[in-house]
Design goal:
GO terms for molecular function: keratan sulfotransferase activity; N-acetylglucosamine 6-O-sulfotransferase activity. This protein is α/β, with parallel strands linked by helices and about 450 residues long. The chain is built from 25 helices and seven strands. Among the domains are: about 35 residues, no CATH class; about 180 residues, no CATH class. Helices cover about 50% and strands about 5% of the residues. It binds 2-acetamido-2-deoxy-beta-D-glucopyranose (NAG) (6 copies).
């Protein structure tokens, strides 16, 4: 009975729900599969178009609703891929749970640079685009959650290196398991280097490919998804970054799956910093905030929706993490972006220690090259954004007006307290960068080593 409200939501969200429930129907019925989205066992995604999903969903929408959440327990999962089962570190799957403009690209690099980690940058982008194109604007909680079943299934498949599951969501549909439409393919080192990309290059050029996403796409040609899956299997570990899962509780089914060995790094950032960064980046959505900043007057129709969503999602997730329920134990680490920006090497060591993985020299080198430690910009212009994001974690303090800061921190007060971000009461406090607004936090799950 606990799933009945969900059923109501699904039915109410007519067309979206049909697409979504169709996927669940498939997941629960391996024998009648046309479209094994998220079905880790098959490894082949065939003929799964949105049209098919819709058509099939309309035939028996009620069936999938009846199944509800328990279908997940019927999904067969293959044994974990373990190349050195008796010996080396257990295969670990890492999920970076983040939100936009919270520093997640930077954290992703801490895994992307590791030679034994297969890293994927935001694969759920394709799920969102295929199922819920309007989602980016949507603040409707129910709508946001509609996508989650599909997203979880896909994550499970991807961690198991069944990359072909992703093909079902890519538009246009890849043919011959080959596509040039994978979102930000160039952000994944494994997808830009041999054997996935065999372009013969000199050493210098090779590092160019690795540092420049556009260059990777240009030189490597369409992505051979089968080769990418091989590359995934050849690595000891896999990491995925996403800004499309709202809360840690949405991942419970994956975290509790013992064959997945999933560890989640939740990245959080001061919502005032997220706001300042989004105002620069998402100029249309945050148009009224820019107007406020320019004129000094708060537009009467200013919408706090987006920032409220960030604060609510963070608050729920972090409260849950701090409560340390048994199912999260040893599987959840909370990382404040500000801590990473201030102590990149130390926090990265803690991160790897939590994951139980050896920190590779190349990760440390990358950090040294791309944080404040280095001032040589000339040869590595392409990393400027990354470098800035690390150095400028607190530059919102000079970018937002005092009024905007007060307005935001009032809306997010409980979260600021929970995460240890100080409220400011005077413009002088706000602008005085020698006065830190970040309290120390060293208790679990901010620091977790077990
Ligand atoms: C999938 O599509 C191909 C070509 O479009 C077709 O030959 C094949 O029979 C289809 N498979 C299924 C299971 O419908
Ligand atoms: C364990 O790993 C070491 C070095 O990585 C290797 O030399 C050894 O053969 C491995 N042992 C087994 C049983 O796989
Ligand atoms: C798929 O690959 C086969 C063999 O490599 C080739 O003959 C065919 O033209 C390819 N199809 C497409 C649509 O690229
Ligand atoms: C992708 O790689 C596989 C394995 O090497 C190969 O058999 C296949 O032909 C490649 N596909 C394309 C489209 O190049
Ligand atoms: C770091 O910078 C040095 C010197 O520019 C370069 O040789 C090295 O390859 C860089 N390492 C990484 C991981 O970026
Ligand atoms: C800035 O903050 C520091 C540390 O709290 C304090 O010592 C200093 O007096 C402040 N400066 C001004 C101008 O308020």
């Amino acid at each position: 009975m606990q799933c009945s409200w969900k059923s109501m939501v699904l039915l109410a969200l007519a067309s979206i729900a049909i697409q979504y429930t169709a996927i669940r129907t498939f997941s629960s019925k391996p024998l009648s599969l046309l479209c094994p989205v998220g079905l880790a066992t098959t490894g082949h995604a065939v003929n799964c178009s949105l049209r098919d999903l819709t058509r099939l969903g309309q035939v028996r929408p009620e069936e999938s609703v009846r199944g509800c959440d328990e279908v997940f327990s019927h999904i067969p999962t293959p044994p974990s891929i373990s190349l050195h089962s008796n010996n080396a570190t257990k295969r670990t799957h890492i999920l970076i749970l983040a939100t936009t403009r919270s520093g997640s690209s930077f954290v992703g690099q801490l895994f992307n640079q590791h030679p034994e980690v297969f890293y994927l940058f935001e694969p759920l982008y394709h799920v969102q685009l295929a199922l819920l194109p309007r989602l980016a604007q949507s603040r409707n909680l129910a709508e946001r959650r509609v996508m989650l079943g599909a997203a979880r299934d896909l994550l499970r498949s991807l961690f198991h290196c069944h990359l072909s599951s992703l093909e079902s969501y890519i538009r246009p549909r890849p043919s011959n398991h080959s596509t040039d439409k994978l979102f930000r393919r160039g952000a994944s080192r494994s997808l830009c280097s041999p054997p996935v990309c065999e372009v013969p290059l000199g050493l210098e050029e090779q590092s160019l490919v690795l540092s420049d996403e556009g260059e990777c796409v240009k030189r490597c040609g369409p992505l051979n998804v089968s080769l990418a899956a091989d590359a995934c299997r050849a690595k000891h570990h896999a990491a995925i970054k996403t800004v499309r899962i709202p809360q840690i509780s949405d991942l419970r089914a994956l975290i509790e799956d013992p064959r997945l060995n999933l560890k989640v790094v939740q990245l959080v950032r001061d919502p005032r910093g997220i706001l300042a960064s989004r105002i620069e980046t998402f100029r249309d959505t945050y148009r009224l905030w820019r107007l406020w900043r320019a004129t000094g007057h708060r537009p009467h129709n200013l919408d706090l929706g987006q920032i409220n969503t960030v604060c609510e999602d963070f608050l729920r997730s972090v409260s849950l993490g701090l409560a340390r329920p048994p199912w999260l134990r040893g599987r959840y680490m909370l990382l404040r972006y500000e801590d990473l920006a201030r102590f990149p090497l130390q926090k990265t060591r803690e991160l790897y220690s939590f994951l139980g993985l050896p920190l590779d020299r190349s990760v440390e080198d990358w950090i040294i090259n791309n944080t404040r430690g280095s001032s040589d910009l000339s040869s590595r212009q392409k990393f400027t954004t990354v470098r800035d994001s690390a150095a400028n974690a607190e530059n919102w303090r000079v970018k937002l007006s005092f009024d905007m800061v007060v307005y935001t921190q009032t809306a997010c007060q409980p979260l600021l307290e929970l995460l240890g971000y100080k409220t400011v009461f005077q413009a002088r406090e706000l602008r005085n960068l020698s006065y830190s607004l970040v309290e120390d936090r060293t208790a679990p799950p901010f620091f977790l080593n077990n």
